[in-house]
Amino acid sequence: MHRQALVLLLIGITFAGVHTQGRKRTCKPNEEFLHAYYPRHDAFCKPWLALPTEVNKLHWCLCKQGYVRNAWGVCINMTDCLSCKDKPFQDFNHCGSKCPLACGKPIDKKCPHGCVTGCSCGPGSVLHPSDNKTCVPGYLCPPQCPRFSSFQICTPVCEATCDQPEPRECRTRCHNGKC
After folding, report:
1. CA–CA distance from 121 to each of 81, 85, 96, 131, 176 (Å)?
2. Which of 40, 145, 153, 166 could make a disulfide contact with 124, Cβ separation 3.0–4.6 Å?
3. Where does the UniProt annotation place the signal sequence (predicted)?
4. Cα–Cα dist 179/177, whole Å
């Protein structure tokens, strides 16, 4: 009985390995496909800044050698990672907001599109009220939200409407937060 179970287990592992080897190898920039039987966790520049869902995510594509994931899960080189080492609530971001969230200030609805490269407040962090170079946790000092709303780090990508009270594809996004 035990021998049959062991044989079935080995066949299953072999089949799973063959299945993953046949996966489509589409990785993002600075990532490489993992040739293994199972996905793995990746290294982060500042894991304490990244949301647990990001840190605990299993990847088939890992950052290339000399790269680590930033707080948003994007692979960045170690030089960029180290450029933010003295900024506790900031991590390097190739595409940060031109209008970062600020403590006690309204969210800028007319923010121009585009990216700012450099150290950005990590997910759930906002700019300090008196210093535009320091970030603080958003729960200690959230941005100012309109009446009857509150600042949330994780928000649904889709919203319920009268016509569709339960949208079909609704995912939660946990990156910058919004009211």
Report:
1. 13, 13, 9, 13, 9
2. 153
3. 1-20
4. 7
Q: Per the structure, how many domains does the chain have?
A: 1
Is 33 inside a domain boundary?
A: yes
Whose tokens are 């603080």? That residue is 136
Distance between CA atoms of residues 81 and 93, nearest Å: 9
Rg over alpha carbons for the chain, rounded to the nearest Å, is 21
The pair of structure tokens assigned to 48 is: 């304490």
Helix (H, G, I), strand (E, B) or coil at 31: strand
If we measure between CA atoms, which residue out of 168, 89, 164, 80 comes closest to residue 121? Answer: 89
CA 13 vs CA 2, 36, 60, 73, 179: distances in Å: 16, 11, 17, 29, 46
> Which residue type does 147 have?
R
The pLDDT of residue 107: 84
Query: What is the extent of the structural domain holding 30?
Result: 25-178
